[in-house]
Amino acid sequence: MLPIKAITASLRFHLSKILPDYLVNRYFITAMVFFIWMIFFDKNKWVNQWQLSQSIYRLEQEQKILAGMIVEARRDKEDLEKNKEKYAREKYYMHKENEDIFIFEENLNPDK
After folding, report:
1. Distance from C-alpha of 30 to C-alpha of 38, rounded to nearest angstrom
2. pTM to 2 decimals?
C-alpha cells in the first residue's frame, strides 16, 4: 500500500503537466474548496443571501410607497374634518337637488 504522501506527490506531478503550478498549489485548492462550500453547500449560502437582500430591497421600496400613502390619507382626513361638504362634493360627486355637476378631466397626455 502506498503512503498518502506518495499518492499526493504522484497526483501533483500528473496535474502539474496539465495545469499551471498555481492551480496545483494546496493553498489554492483549499481556498477553492472553501469558496465552493460557502457558495453552494453552507446553510448561509450565497444564493440565499442574495435572495434575502433582494427581498429587503423590495420591502424597503414598498415601505416608502406606503409611507407616502399614509401621508396622503392623513391629508385627506384633515380635509374631511375641516370641510365635510367640500370633501363629499369632490370625492363622491354629491350635489343638492337643484344643482348640476360638471366634471372636467385634465388631459394628461398632450399628444392625443
Report:
1. 12
2. 0.50
